[in-house]
Design the sequence.
Protein backbone atom coordinates (compact mmCIF):
# COMPACT_ATOMS: atom_id res chain seq x y z
CA UNK A 1 0.00 0.00 0.00
CA UNK A 2 1.33 3.41 -0.83
CA UNK A 3 1.30 5.81 2.07
CA UNK A 4 1.70 8.76 -0.21
CA UNK A 5 1.11 9.20 -3.86
CA UNK A 6 1.52 12.42 -5.80
CA UNK A 7 -0.02 12.07 -9.21
CA UNK A 8 1.27 14.64 -11.69
CA UNK A 9 0.80 17.67 -9.48
CA UNK A 10 1.47 21.21 -10.62
CA UNK A 11 1.68 24.15 -8.24
CA UNK A 12 1.88 27.84 -8.93
CA UNK A 13 2.71 30.43 -6.30
CA UNK A 14 1.79 34.06 -6.98
CA UNK A 15 1.33 33.21 -10.62
CA UNK A 16 4.74 31.61 -10.95
CA UNK A 17 4.91 27.89 -11.75
CA UNK A 18 6.86 26.14 -8.99
CA UNK A 19 6.06 22.49 -9.60
CA UNK A 20 5.11 20.93 -12.92
CA UNK A 21 3.80 17.43 -13.42
CA UNK A 22 5.49 15.93 -10.37
CA UNK A 23 4.71 12.33 -9.49
CA UNK A 24 6.07 10.57 -6.44
CA UNK A 25 5.23 7.54 -4.31
CA UNK A 26 6.17 6.51 -0.82
CA UNK A 27 5.38 2.91 0.00
CA UNK A 28 4.84 1.27 3.36
CA UNK A 29 7.96 1.48 5.55
CA UNK A 30 9.88 3.08 2.73
CA UNK A 31 12.28 5.97 3.28
CA UNK A 32 12.24 8.26 0.30
CA UNK A 33 14.57 11.20 -0.14
CA UNK A 34 13.87 14.39 -2.07
CA UNK A 35 16.92 16.26 -3.33
CA UNK A 36 17.56 19.15 -5.66
CA UNK A 37 19.09 22.61 -5.80
CA UNK A 38 17.74 25.57 -3.85
CA UNK A 39 14.49 26.79 -5.30
CA UNK A 40 13.78 23.57 -7.18
CA UNK A 41 10.44 23.15 -5.39
CA UNK A 42 11.26 20.56 -2.72
CA UNK A 43 9.61 22.38 0.14
CA UNK A 44 6.62 23.32 -2.00
CA UNK A 45 6.14 19.67 -2.87
CA UNK A 46 6.08 18.74 0.81
CA UNK A 47 3.75 21.66 1.59
CA UNK A 48 1.28 20.39 -0.99
CA UNK A 49 0.96 17.18 1.03
CA UNK A 50 -0.35 18.84 4.19
CA UNK A 51 -2.33 21.36 2.16
CA UNK A 52 -0.31 24.49 2.85
CA UNK A 53 -0.57 24.94 -0.92
CA UNK A 54 -3.16 23.43 -3.23
CA UNK A 55 -2.04 22.10 -6.60
CA UNK A 56 -3.69 23.54 -9.69
CA UNK A 57 -3.54 20.14 -11.34
CA UNK A 58 -2.96 16.58 -10.25
CA UNK A 59 -3.81 14.93 -6.96
CA UNK A 60 -2.22 14.13 -3.63
CA UNK A 61 -3.27 10.82 -2.07
CA UNK A 62 -2.58 10.04 1.58
CA UNK A 63 -3.19 6.35 2.34
CA UNK A 64 -5.21 6.23 -0.91
CA UNK A 65 -7.48 9.20 -0.12
CA UNK A 66 -7.31 12.52 -1.93
CA UNK A 67 -6.26 15.20 0.58
CA UNK A 68 -8.73 17.62 -0.97
CA UNK A 69 -11.51 15.42 0.39
CA UNK A 70 -9.96 15.15 3.86
CA UNK A 71 -10.31 17.63 6.70
CA UNK A 72 -7.13 19.33 7.89
CA UNK A 73 -7.36 17.25 11.02
CA UNK A 74 -7.65 14.02 9.06
CA UNK A 75 -4.59 15.01 7.02
CA UNK A 76 -2.76 15.54 10.31
CA UNK A 77 -3.72 12.03 11.39
CA UNK A 78 -2.03 10.61 8.31
CA UNK A 79 1.10 12.73 7.87
CA UNK A 80 3.30 14.39 10.49
CA UNK A 81 5.75 17.15 9.64
CA UNK A 82 9.20 17.98 10.97
CA UNK A 83 10.18 21.26 9.41
CA UNK A 84 13.00 23.67 9.91
CA UNK A 85 13.29 24.91 13.41
CA UNK A 86 10.54 27.39 14.09
CA UNK A 87 10.92 30.49 16.20
CA UNK A 88 9.42 29.62 19.55
CA UNK A 89 8.17 32.40 21.68
CA UNK A 90 6.50 31.93 25.00
CA UNK A 91 8.82 29.39 26.59
CA UNK A 92 7.05 26.09 26.12
CA UNK A 93 8.50 23.06 27.84
CA UNK A 94 9.64 20.03 25.88
CA UNK A 95 6.68 18.04 27.12
CA UNK A 96 4.21 20.72 26.04
CA UNK A 97 5.66 20.84 22.54
CA UNK A 98 5.60 17.06 22.15
CA UNK A 99 2.05 17.04 23.52
CA UNK A 100 1.02 19.15 20.52
CA UNK A 101 1.51 16.03 18.44
CA UNK A 102 -1.61 14.64 20.09
CA UNK A 103 -3.72 17.58 18.89
CA UNK A 104 -5.20 15.86 15.80
CA UNK A 105 -6.56 13.13 18.05
CA UNK A 106 -8.10 15.36 20.70
CA UNK A 107 -11.35 17.27 20.92
CA UNK A 108 -11.40 20.98 21.72
CA UNK A 109 -11.81 20.52 25.45
CA UNK A 110 -9.74 17.38 25.93
CA UNK A 111 -6.83 17.76 28.21
CA UNK A 112 -3.71 15.68 27.83
CA UNK A 113 -4.93 12.31 29.06
CA UNK A 114 -3.10 9.37 30.54
CA UNK A 115 -2.97 7.62 27.17
CA UNK A 116 -1.52 10.75 25.59
CA UNK A 117 1.03 11.03 28.36
CA UNK A 118 2.20 7.49 27.70
CA UNK A 119 2.59 8.29 23.99
CA UNK A 120 4.51 11.46 24.81
CA UNK A 121 6.83 9.65 27.19
CA UNK A 122 7.48 6.92 24.63
CA UNK A 123 8.18 9.46 21.92
CA UNK A 124 10.66 11.30 24.12
CA UNK A 125 12.33 8.02 25.04
CA UNK A 126 12.59 7.08 21.36
CA UNK A 127 14.52 10.24 20.58
CA UNK A 128 16.64 9.71 23.68
CA UNK A 129 15.35 12.71 25.56
CA UNK A 130 13.23 11.11 28.23
CA UNK A 131 14.69 13.26 31.01
CA UNK A 132 14.13 16.54 29.21
CA UNK A 133 10.36 16.72 29.60
CA UNK A 134 10.25 19.77 31.84
CA UNK A 135 13.09 21.67 30.21
CA UNK A 136 12.18 24.79 28.28
CA UNK A 137 12.65 24.33 24.56
CA UNK A 138 14.51 27.64 24.35
CA UNK A 139 17.33 26.26 26.50
CA UNK A 140 18.08 23.30 24.21
CA UNK A 141 20.74 23.05 21.53
CA UNK A 142 19.84 22.95 17.84
CA UNK A 143 20.18 19.18 17.64
CA UNK A 144 18.09 18.68 20.75
CA UNK A 145 15.36 20.98 19.44
CA UNK A 146 15.21 19.02 16.21
CA UNK A 147 14.88 15.79 18.20
CA UNK A 148 11.99 17.32 20.11
CA UNK A 149 10.25 18.08 16.84
CA UNK A 150 10.81 14.50 15.72
CA UNK A 151 9.37 13.34 19.04
CA UNK A 152 6.34 15.53 18.38
CA UNK A 153 5.92 13.92 14.98
CA UNK A 154 6.24 10.45 16.54
CA UNK A 155 3.59 11.35 19.10
CA UNK A 156 1.29 12.26 16.24
CA UNK A 157 1.16 8.51 15.44
CA UNK A 158 0.83 8.94 11.70
CA UNK A 159 1.67 6.30 9.11
CA UNK A 160 3.75 8.86 7.18
CA UNK A 161 6.51 11.21 8.29
CA UNK A 162 7.47 14.30 6.33
CA UNK A 163 10.84 15.83 7.07
CA UNK A 164 11.84 19.11 5.48
CA UNK A 165 15.59 19.52 5.76
CA UNK A 166 15.70 18.11 9.26
CA UNK A 167 19.50 18.24 9.39
CA UNK A 168 19.75 21.95 8.63
CA UNK A 169 22.10 23.73 11.03
CA UNK A 170 23.06 20.46 12.66
CA UNK A 171 26.66 19.33 13.07
CA UNK A 172 27.55 16.01 11.45
CA UNK A 173 27.15 14.05 14.66
CA UNK A 174 23.69 15.45 15.35
CA UNK A 175 22.71 15.01 11.69
CA UNK A 176 23.72 11.33 11.61
CA UNK A 177 22.04 10.76 14.95
CA UNK A 178 18.81 12.25 13.70
CA UNK A 179 18.70 10.28 10.46
CA UNK A 180 19.70 7.10 12.30
CA UNK A 181 16.79 7.75 14.61
CA UNK A 182 14.37 8.26 11.73
CA UNK A 183 15.58 5.04 10.11
CA UNK A 184 15.07 3.16 13.38
CA UNK A 185 11.45 4.30 13.48
CA UNK A 186 10.81 2.16 10.42
CA UNK A 187 7.97 4.36 9.27
CA UNK A 188 7.16 5.52 5.75
CA UNK A 189 9.15 8.72 5.39
CA UNK A 190 9.59 11.46 2.82
CA UNK A 191 12.68 13.48 3.64
CA UNK A 192 13.98 16.62 1.95
CA UNK A 193 17.75 16.64 2.24
CA UNK A 194 20.43 18.99 1.01
CA UNK A 195 23.34 16.69 1.67
CA UNK A 196 23.48 14.15 -1.15
CA UNK A 197 25.74 11.82 0.81
CA UNK A 198 23.34 11.72 3.73
CA UNK A 199 20.53 11.12 1.26
CA UNK A 200 22.46 8.28 -0.40
CA UNK A 201 23.15 6.66 2.95
CA UNK A 202 19.75 6.91 4.59
CA UNK A 203 17.20 6.72 1.82
CA UNK A 204 15.88 3.64 0.01
CA UNK A 205 14.90 5.72 -2.98
CA UNK A 206 15.56 9.25 -4.14
CA UNK A 207 13.64 11.72 -6.23
CA UNK A 208 15.69 14.47 -7.85
CA UNK A 209 13.93 17.77 -8.51
CA UNK A 210 15.16 20.41 -10.90
CA UNK A 211 13.23 23.59 -11.63
CA UNK A 212 9.98 22.07 -10.43
CA UNK A 213 10.27 18.80 -12.32
CA UNK A 214 11.24 15.32 -11.25
CA UNK A 215 14.30 14.57 -13.37
CA UNK A 216 15.31 11.27 -11.81
CA UNK A 217 13.91 8.71 -9.41
CA UNK A 218 15.25 5.44 -8.11
CA UNK A 219 17.72 3.82 -5.71
CA UNK A 220 20.63 6.13 -4.84
CA UNK A 221 23.17 3.78 -6.34
CA UNK A 222 21.34 3.78 -9.66
CA UNK A 223 20.61 7.45 -10.12
CA UNK A 224 23.43 9.38 -8.45
CA UNK A 225 25.70 9.55 -11.46
CA UNK A 226 28.24 12.28 -12.32
CA UNK A 227 26.14 13.16 -15.36
CA UNK A 228 22.99 13.72 -13.33
CA UNK A 229 24.82 15.70 -10.66
CA UNK A 230 26.34 17.94 -13.31
CA UNK A 231 23.02 18.41 -15.03
CA UNK A 232 21.09 19.20 -11.86
CA UNK A 233 23.60 20.92 -9.57
CA UNK A 234 26.18 22.15 -12.08
CA UNK A 235 29.13 20.63 -10.26
CA UNK A 236 31.50 17.81 -11.11
CA UNK A 237 31.80 14.82 -8.89
CA UNK A 238 33.24 11.37 -8.61
CA UNK A 239 31.04 8.61 -7.27
CA UNK A 240 32.83 6.27 -4.89
CA UNK A 241 31.57 3.38 -2.82
CA UNK A 242 31.74 3.65 0.94
CA UNK A 243 34.00 0.80 2.04
CA UNK A 244 31.85 -0.01 5.07
CA UNK A 245 28.26 0.90 4.28
CA UNK A 246 28.55 0.16 0.54
CA UNK A 247 26.40 3.18 -0.21
CA UNK A 248 27.52 5.63 -2.91
CA UNK A 249 29.70 8.52 -1.76
CA UNK A 250 29.96 11.65 -3.87
CA UNK A 251 33.24 13.51 -3.91
CA UNK A 252 32.64 16.93 -5.41
CA UNK A 253 35.08 19.08 -7.26
CA UNK A 254 35.05 22.59 -8.71
CA UNK A 255 32.27 23.88 -10.87
CA UNK A 256 32.85 23.33 -14.57
CA UNK A 257 32.17 26.85 -15.68
CA UNK A 258 31.58 26.20 -19.33
CA UNK A 259 29.20 23.29 -18.74
CA UNK A 260 27.30 24.80 -15.92
CA UNK A 261 23.61 25.05 -16.53
CA UNK A 262 22.63 28.67 -16.30
CA UNK A 263 20.72 29.79 -13.24
CA UNK A 264 17.03 29.76 -14.02
CA UNK A 265 16.08 33.23 -15.05
CA UNK A 266 14.32 35.15 -12.33
CA UNK A 267 10.74 35.58 -13.32
CA UNK A 268 9.55 39.10 -12.48
CA UNK A 269 7.01 39.07 -9.71
CA UNK A 270 3.65 39.71 -11.34
CA UNK A 271 1.58 42.52 -9.94
CA UNK A 272 -1.20 41.16 -7.94
CA UNK A 273 -4.61 42.00 -9.19
CA UNK A 274 -6.97 43.34 -6.62
CA UNK B 1 -15.13 22.31 34.76
CA UNK B 2 -14.91 21.45 38.41
CA UNK B 3 -11.98 23.04 40.16
CA UNK B 4 -11.19 19.71 41.75
CA UNK B 5 -10.71 18.03 38.37
CA UNK B 6 -8.56 20.82 37.20
CA UNK B 7 -6.46 20.63 40.32
CA UNK B 8 -5.98 16.92 39.76
CA UNK B 9 -5.02 17.47 36.16
CA UNK B 10 -2.60 20.23 37.11
CA UNK B 11 -1.03 17.92 39.64
CA UNK B 12 -0.49 15.24 37.02
CA UNK B 13 1.38 17.43 34.60
CA UNK B 14 3.34 19.17 37.31
CA UNK B 15 7.06 19.25 36.94
CA UNK B 16 9.77 18.48 39.44
CA UNK B 17 11.41 21.54 40.87
CA UNK B 18 14.81 20.64 39.51
CA UNK B 19 15.85 18.55 36.59
CA UNK B 20 19.26 17.00 36.26
CA UNK B 21 20.34 17.09 32.67
CA UNK B 22 23.22 15.64 30.76
CA UNK B 23 26.58 17.34 31.05
CA UNK B 24 25.94 18.29 34.66
CA UNK B 25 24.01 21.44 33.78
CA UNK B 26 21.39 22.01 36.36
CA UNK B 27 18.50 24.18 35.51
CA UNK B 28 16.13 25.47 38.12
CA UNK B 29 12.63 25.10 36.81
CA UNK B 30 10.72 28.19 37.71
CA UNK B 31 9.57 28.17 41.28
CA UNK B 32 6.28 29.72 40.28
CA UNK B 33 5.52 26.97 37.86
CA UNK B 34 5.95 24.34 40.50
CA UNK B 35 2.91 22.15 40.61
CA UNK B 36 1.92 22.97 44.17
CA UNK B 37 1.84 26.67 43.32
CA UNK B 38 -0.24 25.91 40.25
CA UNK B 39 -2.65 23.75 42.14
CA UNK B 40 -2.97 26.35 44.86
CA UNK B 41 -3.57 29.12 42.33
CA UNK B 42 -6.44 27.29 40.69
CA UNK B 43 -8.25 27.38 44.00
CA UNK B 44 -6.88 30.65 45.29
CA UNK B 45 -7.31 32.96 42.29
CA UNK B 46 -11.13 32.80 42.20
CA UNK B 47 -11.11 33.42 45.94
CA UNK B 48 -8.79 36.39 45.43
CA UNK B 49 -11.18 37.73 42.82
CA UNK B 50 -14.14 37.45 45.19
CA UNK B 51 -12.16 39.17 47.96
CA UNK B 52 -11.07 41.96 45.61
CA UNK B 53 -14.64 42.45 44.46
CA UNK B 54 -15.94 42.59 48.03
CA UNK B 55 -13.25 45.08 48.94
CA UNK B 56 -14.06 47.18 45.89
CA UNK B 57 -17.72 47.36 46.90
CA UNK B 58 -16.80 48.34 50.45
CA UNK B 59 -14.38 51.09 49.48
CA UNK B 60 -15.27 54.17 47.48
CA UNK B 61 -15.00 57.90 47.27
CA UNK B 62 -17.81 58.17 49.83
CA UNK B 63 -17.04 56.45 53.11
CA UNK B 64 -19.82 54.02 53.95
CA UNK B 65 -19.89 51.77 56.98
CA UNK B 66 -19.33 48.10 56.06
CA UNK B 67 -22.52 47.26 57.88
CA UNK B 68 -24.55 49.50 55.58
CA UNK B 69 -22.94 48.03 52.49
CA UNK B 70 -23.66 44.55 53.75
CA UNK B 71 -27.28 45.49 54.39
CA UNK B 72 -27.72 46.78 50.86
CA UNK B 73 -26.20 43.64 49.38
CA UNK B 74 -28.31 41.47 51.61
CA UNK B 75 -31.47 43.30 50.60
CA UNK B 76 -30.79 42.87 46.92
CA UNK B 77 -29.13 39.49 46.77
CA UNK B 78 -30.90 37.60 49.51
CA UNK B 79 -34.19 39.41 49.49
CA UNK B 80 -33.71 40.86 52.98
CA UNK B 81 -35.40 44.01 54.18
CA UNK B 82 -32.86 45.65 56.44
CA UNK B 83 -33.24 49.38 56.83
CA UNK B 84 -30.89 51.35 54.60
CA UNK B 85 -30.98 54.94 53.43
CA UNK B 86 -31.92 55.52 49.81
CA UNK B 87 -28.61 57.27 49.12
CA UNK B 88 -26.60 54.38 50.47
CA UNK B 89 -28.67 51.92 48.50
CA UNK B 90 -28.09 53.94 45.34
CA UNK B 91 -24.34 54.28 45.91
CA UNK B 92 -23.80 50.61 46.57
CA UNK B 93 -26.31 48.96 44.25
CA UNK B 94 -26.46 51.39 41.34
CA UNK B 95 -22.87 52.69 41.35
CA UNK B 96 -20.39 50.42 43.07
CA UNK B 97 -21.67 46.95 42.25
CA UNK B 98 -22.10 47.51 38.49
CA UNK B 99 -18.76 49.26 38.41
CA UNK B 100 -16.97 46.35 40.07
CA UNK B 101 -18.70 43.91 37.75
CA UNK B 102 -17.71 46.01 34.76
CA UNK B 103 -14.11 45.97 35.98
CA UNK B 104 -14.29 42.18 36.10
CA UNK B 105 -15.70 41.94 32.58
CA UNK B 106 -13.36 44.50 31.04
CA UNK B 107 -10.26 43.17 32.79
CA UNK B 108 -11.01 39.57 31.86
CA UNK B 109 -11.94 40.44 28.28
CA UNK B 110 -8.96 42.66 27.52
CA UNK B 111 -6.46 40.26 29.03
CA UNK B 112 -7.98 37.35 27.12
CA UNK B 113 -8.03 39.26 23.83
CA UNK B 114 -4.38 40.20 24.35
CA UNK B 115 -3.32 36.64 25.06
CA UNK B 116 -5.15 35.33 22.00
CA UNK B 117 -3.78 38.01 19.68
CA UNK B 118 -0.23 37.47 20.88
CA UNK B 119 -0.50 33.85 19.83
CA UNK B 120 -2.47 34.59 16.66
CA UNK B 121 0.17 36.92 15.25
CA UNK B 122 3.03 35.22 17.10
CA UNK B 123 4.24 38.49 18.52
CA UNK B 124 4.73 39.17 22.23
CA UNK B 125 4.12 42.89 21.70
CA UNK B 126 0.60 42.38 20.37
CA UNK B 127 -2.21 43.79 22.49
CA UNK B 128 -5.99 44.00 22.00
CA UNK B 129 -5.57 47.33 20.21
CA UNK B 130 -3.24 45.83 17.60
CA UNK B 131 -5.76 46.24 14.80
CA UNK B 132 -6.42 49.89 15.51
CA UNK B 133 -9.45 49.29 17.73
CA UNK B 134 -8.64 51.95 20.29
CA UNK B 135 -7.41 54.48 17.74
CA UNK B 136 -10.60 54.15 15.71
CA UNK B 137 -12.77 54.32 18.81
CA UNK B 138 -10.75 57.29 20.06
CA UNK B 139 -11.24 59.27 16.87
CA UNK B 140 -15.01 58.91 16.79
CA UNK B 141 -15.25 59.50 20.53
CA UNK B 142 -13.22 62.69 20.10
CA UNK B 143 -15.46 63.83 17.28
CA UNK B 144 -18.56 63.18 19.36
CA UNK B 145 -17.19 64.94 22.43
CA UNK B 146 -15.88 67.92 20.46
CA UNK B 147 -18.62 68.51 17.94
CA UNK B 148 -21.58 66.87 19.64
CA UNK B 149 -23.63 63.82 18.79
CA UNK B 150 -24.98 65.42 15.63
CA UNK B 151 -21.55 65.00 14.02
CA UNK B 152 -21.89 61.21 14.21
CA UNK B 153 -25.54 60.79 13.31
CA UNK B 154 -26.77 61.15 16.84
CA UNK B 155 -24.78 58.31 18.36
CA UNK B 156 -23.72 58.39 21.99
CA UNK B 157 -20.00 58.56 22.72
CA UNK B 158 -19.80 54.88 23.33
CA UNK B 159 -21.93 54.06 20.31
CA UNK B 160 -19.65 56.18 18.16
CA UNK B 161 -16.60 54.60 19.75
CA UNK B 162 -17.87 51.14 18.89
CA UNK B 163 -18.50 52.15 15.29
CA UNK B 164 -15.01 53.64 15.12
CA UNK B 165 -13.46 50.50 16.58
CA UNK B 166 -15.21 48.26 14.10
CA UNK B 167 -14.53 50.52 11.11
CA UNK B 168 -10.85 50.69 11.94
CA UNK B 169 -10.61 46.90 12.39
CA UNK B 170 -12.37 46.26 9.12
CA UNK B 171 -10.03 48.64 7.31
CA UNK B 172 -6.94 47.04 8.84
CA UNK B 173 -8.16 43.55 7.99
CA UNK B 174 -8.95 44.65 4.46
CA UNK B 175 -5.53 46.23 4.01
CA UNK B 176 -3.67 43.30 5.53
CA UNK B 177 -5.48 40.71 3.47
CA UNK B 178 -3.37 39.01 0.85
CA UNK B 179 -4.78 36.31 -1.36
CA UNK B 180 -7.52 35.67 1.14
CA UNK B 181 -5.08 35.20 3.99
CA UNK B 182 -3.66 37.20 6.84
CA UNK B 183 0.02 37.01 7.56
CA UNK B 184 1.15 38.18 11.01
CA UNK B 185 3.64 40.75 9.74
CA UNK B 186 1.17 42.46 7.43
CA UNK B 187 -1.46 42.52 10.16
CA UNK B 188 0.95 44.19 12.55
CA UNK B 189 2.18 46.72 10.00
CA UNK B 190 -1.32 47.60 8.80
CA UNK B 191 -2.60 47.86 12.38
CA UNK B 192 0.24 50.03 13.64
CA UNK B 193 0.08 52.33 10.63
CA UNK B 194 -3.68 52.70 10.85
CA UNK B 195 -3.37 53.48 14.57
CA UNK B 196 -0.89 56.26 13.83
CA UNK B 197 -3.13 57.67 11.13
CA UNK B 198 -6.21 57.69 13.34
CA UNK B 199 -4.33 59.03 16.36
CA UNK B 200 -3.02 61.86 14.20
CA UNK B 201 -6.56 62.69 13.12
CA UNK B 202 -7.71 62.54 16.74
CA UNK B 203 -5.06 65.05 17.78
CA UNK B 204 -6.15 67.27 14.92
CA UNK B 205 -9.77 67.09 16.07
CA UNK B 206 -8.75 67.98 19.62
CA UNK B 207 -6.65 70.94 18.48
CA UNK B 208 -9.32 72.21 16.07
CA UNK B 209 -11.99 71.84 18.69
CA UNK B 210 -10.11 74.37 20.80
CA UNK B 211 -12.23 73.62 23.85
CA UNK B 212 -9.97 72.74 26.80
CA UNK B 213 -12.80 71.03 28.62
CA UNK B 214 -13.56 68.79 25.65
CA UNK B 215 -9.83 68.06 25.26
CA UNK B 216 -9.74 67.08 28.92
CA UNK B 217 -12.65 64.70 28.61
CA UNK B 218 -11.25 63.18 25.41
CA UNK B 219 -7.97 62.53 27.18
CA UNK B 220 -9.86 61.04 30.10
CA UNK B 221 -11.86 58.87 27.74
CA UNK B 222 -8.78 57.62 25.89
CA UNK B 223 -7.07 56.67 29.13
CA UNK B 224 -10.10 54.65 30.07
CA UNK B 225 -12.59 54.79 32.88
CA UNK B 226 -15.18 52.54 34.43
CA UNK B 227 -17.27 55.45 35.66
CA UNK B 228 -19.98 54.85 33.06
CA UNK B 229 -20.90 51.54 34.68
CA UNK B 230 -24.55 50.88 35.36
CA UNK B 231 -26.71 47.81 35.21
CA UNK B 232 -27.80 48.67 31.70
CA UNK B 233 -24.28 49.31 30.31
CA UNK B 234 -23.17 46.02 31.84
CA UNK B 235 -25.39 43.76 29.77
CA UNK B 236 -23.77 43.85 26.34
CA UNK B 237 -20.12 43.69 27.46
CA UNK B 238 -20.91 40.77 29.74
CA UNK B 239 -22.64 38.84 26.99
CA UNK B 240 -19.92 39.55 24.46
CA UNK B 241 -17.10 38.61 26.82
CA UNK B 242 -18.92 35.45 27.88
CA UNK B 243 -19.68 34.31 24.33
CA UNK B 244 -16.41 35.50 22.84
CA UNK B 245 -14.49 34.08 25.76
CA UNK B 246 -16.20 30.73 25.33
CA UNK B 247 -15.33 30.69 21.66
CA UNK B 248 -11.70 31.62 22.26
CA UNK B 249 -11.29 29.08 25.07
CA UNK B 250 -12.45 26.39 22.63
CA UNK B 251 -9.39 27.12 20.51
CA UNK B 252 -6.77 27.02 23.23
CA UNK B 253 -5.05 23.99 21.76
CA UNK B 254 -4.98 25.46 18.28
CA UNK B 255 -3.31 28.54 19.77
CA UNK B 256 -0.62 26.26 21.17
CA UNK B 257 -0.11 24.76 17.73
CA UNK B 258 0.28 28.23 16.22
CA UNK B 259 3.54 28.59 18.14
CA UNK B 260 5.04 26.16 15.63
CA UNK B 261 4.36 28.54 12.77
CA UNK B 262 1.65 28.41 10.12
CA UNK B 263 2.98 25.24 8.53
CA UNK B 264 3.50 23.58 11.88
CA UNK B 265 -0.09 24.38 12.84
CA UNK B 266 -1.42 23.12 9.51
CA UNK B 267 0.45 19.85 9.88
CA UNK B 268 -1.16 19.46 13.30
CA UNK B 269 -4.59 19.67 11.76
CA UNK B 270 -5.30 23.35 12.47
CA UNK B 271 -6.88 25.06 9.45
CA UNK B 272 -4.79 28.09 10.30
CA UNK B 273 -6.00 30.68 7.80
CA UNK B 274 -9.67 30.20 8.47
CA UNK B 275 -9.06 30.07 12.20
CA UNK B 276 -6.86 33.17 12.24
CA UNK B 277 -9.56 35.18 10.48
CA UNK B 278 -12.14 34.05 13.01
CA UNK B 279 -9.89 34.73 15.99
CA UNK B 280 -9.10 38.22 14.70
CA UNK B 281 -12.76 39.03 14.22
CA UNK B 282 -13.75 37.62 17.59
CA UNK B 283 -11.03 39.41 19.57
CA UNK B 284 -11.78 42.68 17.75
CA UNK B 285 -15.45 42.37 18.53
CA UNK B 286 -14.76 41.77 22.22
CA UNK B 287 -12.23 44.59 22.36
CA UNK B 288 -14.48 46.96 20.43
CA UNK B 289 -17.35 46.50 22.86
CA UNK B 290 -15.07 46.92 25.87
CA UNK B 291 -13.44 50.05 24.47
CA UNK B 292 -16.87 51.49 23.79
CA UNK B 293 -17.91 51.21 27.45
CA UNK B 294 -14.59 51.77 29.17
CA UNK B 295 -12.34 53.70 26.78
CA UNK B 296 -8.83 52.71 25.83
CA UNK B 297 -7.57 51.04 28.98
CA UNK B 298 -3.99 50.17 28.18
CA UNK B 299 -1.48 47.75 29.61
CA UNK B 300 -3.93 45.09 30.87
CA UNK B 301 -4.20 43.32 27.50
CA UNK B 302 -0.48 43.54 26.85
CA UNK B 303 1.08 42.62 30.14
CA UNK B 304 -1.38 40.44 32.05
CA UNK B 305 -0.93 37.59 29.52
CA UNK B 306 2.84 37.81 29.94
CA UNK B 307 2.49 37.91 33.69
CA UNK B 308 0.34 34.79 33.63
CA UNK B 309 2.79 33.07 31.28
CA UNK B 310 5.58 33.72 33.76
CA UNK B 311 3.50 32.33 36.60
CA UNK B 312 1.75 29.39 34.94
CA UNK B 313 3.53 28.65 31.68
CA UNK B 314 2.49 29.28 28.09
CA UNK B 315 0.01 26.40 27.58
CA UNK B 316 -3.13 28.20 26.41
CA UNK B 317 -5.50 25.68 27.92
CA UNK B 318 -4.31 26.89 31.30
CA UNK B 319 -3.18 30.34 30.23
CA UNK B 320 -6.48 31.65 28.86
CA UNK B 321 -8.70 31.02 31.89
CA UNK B 322 -5.95 32.16 34.23
CA UNK B 323 -5.43 35.31 32.17
CA UNK B 324 -9.11 36.14 32.43
CA UNK B 325 -9.02 35.68 36.20
CA UNK B 326 -5.86 37.70 36.74
CA UNK B 327 -7.00 40.42 34.35
CA UNK B 328 -10.28 40.73 36.26
CA UNK B 329 -8.56 40.85 39.64
CA UNK B 330 -6.08 43.41 38.41
CA UNK B 331 -8.65 45.79 37.01
CA UNK B 332 -10.89 45.55 40.07
CA UNK B 333 -7.97 46.46 42.32
CA UNK B 334 -6.75 49.21 40.02
CA UNK B 335 -10.21 50.74 39.81
CA UNK B 336 -10.39 50.96 43.60
CA UNK B 337 -7.15 52.91 43.58
CA UNK B 338 -8.51 55.17 40.86
CA UNK B 339 -11.58 55.96 42.90
CA UNK B 340 -10.01 56.57 46.28
CA UNK B 341 -6.45 57.81 45.86
CA UNK B 342 -7.32 61.45 45.09
CA UNK B 343 -10.99 61.47 46.03
CA UNK B 344 -13.33 63.07 45.25
CA UNK B 345 -11.49 63.27 41.92
CA UNK B 346 -10.83 60.13 39.89
CA UNK B 347 -7.66 59.05 38.17
CA UNK B 348 -8.17 57.48 34.71
CA UNK B 349 -7.81 53.70 34.92
CA UNK B 350 -5.17 53.62 32.19
CA UNK B 351 -2.84 55.78 34.26
CA UNK B 352 -2.93 53.44 37.23
CA UNK B 353 -2.80 50.21 35.21
CA UNK B 354 0.50 51.34 33.73
CA UNK B 355 2.08 53.13 36.67
CA UNK B 356 1.27 50.35 39.09
CA UNK B 357 1.61 47.41 36.76
CA UNK B 358 4.81 48.21 34.90
CA UNK B 359 7.17 48.07 37.91
CA UNK B 360 5.55 44.86 39.18
CA UNK B 361 5.86 43.25 35.78
CA UNK B 362 9.46 44.35 35.26
CA UNK B 363 10.39 43.00 38.68
CA UNK B 364 8.79 39.65 37.89
CA UNK B 365 10.38 39.54 34.45
CA UNK B 366 13.86 39.99 35.87
CA UNK B 367 13.29 37.63 38.76
CA UNK B 368 11.99 34.82 36.60
CA UNK B 369 14.36 35.25 33.67
CA UNK B 370 11.40 35.41 31.29
CA UNK B 371 11.78 36.48 27.68
CA UNK B 372 15.00 34.56 27.08
Sequence:
Amino acid sequence: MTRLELDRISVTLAGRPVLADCSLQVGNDERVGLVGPNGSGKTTLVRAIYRAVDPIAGSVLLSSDNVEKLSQREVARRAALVHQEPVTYFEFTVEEIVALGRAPWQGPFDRTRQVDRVVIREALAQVGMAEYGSRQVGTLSGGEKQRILVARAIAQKTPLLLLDEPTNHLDIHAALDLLELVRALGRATLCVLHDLNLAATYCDRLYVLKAGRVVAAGAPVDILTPALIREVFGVDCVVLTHPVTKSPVLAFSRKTKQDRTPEPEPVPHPRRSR
Amino acid sequence: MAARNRAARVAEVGTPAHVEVGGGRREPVRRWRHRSVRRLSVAVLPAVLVCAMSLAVLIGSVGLRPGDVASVLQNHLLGGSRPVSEVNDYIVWQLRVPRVLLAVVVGAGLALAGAVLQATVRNPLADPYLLGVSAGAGLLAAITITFGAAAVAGLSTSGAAFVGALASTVMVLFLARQEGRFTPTRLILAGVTMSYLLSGLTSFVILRGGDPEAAQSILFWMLGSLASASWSTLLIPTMVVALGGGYLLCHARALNAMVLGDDGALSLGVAIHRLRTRLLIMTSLVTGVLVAVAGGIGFVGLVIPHLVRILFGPDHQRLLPMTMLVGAIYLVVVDVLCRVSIRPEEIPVGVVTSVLGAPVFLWLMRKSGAGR
User: Anything to note?
Assistant: The longest strand of chain B covers residues 18-20. The longest helix of chain B spans residues 86-120.
